[in-house]
Each structure stands twice: as structure tokens, then as C-alpha cells.
Amino acid sequence: MKNVWHELCREPLALISDKVFECAKCRHISNTFAYECSECESKRCLRCVIALTPGARTSLRHEHPLFFYKDYHGRCDACGNLTLGAFCCKDCNFVLHFGCFSLPITAHHKCDEHLLSLTAHNDNKYSESHYCDICEESRDTNRWFYHCAICDTSVHVNCVLGKYPFLKLGSIFEETDHPHPLTIVKKKYYYLDCNKCGKPCEDLSLECSKLECKYIVHLDCVVHYTLRCFLWWRM
């Protein structure tokens, strides 16, 4: 489907790819497929476009269908955060906001050799088990987490996915004040200092694609502060 319509845009949204963008709905920064308005240039990720297609939706370990209510204001049952607009159950009070609705069902992480599964409830009642095996901080047992049933590994969602779970290394990032295209990289050695904050670029960074230009900045130094706060929620 090359074009779709959205209630807030007069022009149809066109399918795009290979662009780093902020989704106008879930607020994730991504470089997957998206739909873009040619008039206002707002973008919506493919996950949100599919999720907002009229009709019922299903969710992890919830037996009833979910429907999207754009005017809903309350807390998400998965992360506990306040949300405006959410997927709600007509039969009970179950609520999911956009970010939690689109979480991967399984994920890889170096903390465990097996796939980690997104889990809605903690069946282990022992208090010493209610900690994240990555950051070693406490977990709220009422919030979703990733779990390996074989190794009994339990971890925060953000500790597994990180701040930018839908960004691919090697993609081009163009929305900066630098004159050249920047490549998304993650340095493992030879940490150069960030051209904005002056600290070593040890995490996701943007590096100039021209070899003769030594420009490099943290991705966090480019992404707007309020957006970073929205993305980084603690389970």
C-alpha cells in the first residue's frame, strides 16, 4: 500500500524508507518504513499505521480485543506511565499506550544465550527475584519485562532494547546543522570526543560520512531533550 490517509492531513501519506525520523504517534526515532505527509512532512511508522487501521487488535496475554481511543487519558498497564490516546479493552480496564503496544514479543541480549520473551506478569513471588539481571536495580512486578524461562533471567524492557530500539547502525542521519550526511555508529574502540559536549563517544553516535572530516557527536546530543525523556521510561 503506497498511500494512506490520515485524519489530520489533507494530503495522502506516501510510503518512504531509509530515512531517520521521529514517529508522530509513538514518538520513537526509527529508520524503518514510514508514511510521510507531503504537506506538513510529519511521519508515522508502519507499526502505528497498521495499529491504527480501524478494527480490533490483540495483545500479549490479554484475552479480549483492544480498540484505540484517541481521547483516552490515563495510565498504561504495561509501563505505568500517563498517556493521551491508548488501546483500551471494552470488557475490562486494560490499557496500552503506543510505545508498549509495539514492543517486540521476543528480543536478543548478551545477558542470556536464549531469546528473551516479553512477559506481562511475574509468577515468582520471592522478593530477591524482583531485580533486573542487567542493571541489578529493582523491578516493579506489575510492569512488563523480558524473561528467559530456561535461565530464569528477568530484565527491564529498556535495559534490553535501549533508548533507540528501531534504529539500524550504518543508516544516514541528515537532520542536523552539519553540512555533510552523518552515519549512525556505535564505537567499540578509539572513542573520539563529541564535537558538542566534549565527552568520549562511547554510545550511539553520528559520524561524518566524509573520511577527511572528523566530525562526530553523540546521538543524544542531537536528539531533542524532551524526546529523550519521553523515550526513556523505567519499568
From TrEMBL:
GO terms for molecular function: metal ion binding. Signal peptide: none annotated. Keywords: Metal-binding, Repeat, Zinc. Transmembrane segments: none annotated. Pfam families: C1_2. Residues 61-111 form the Phorbol-ester/DAG-type domain. This is Phorbol-ester/DAG-type domain-containing protein. It comes from Gossypium aridum (American cotton).
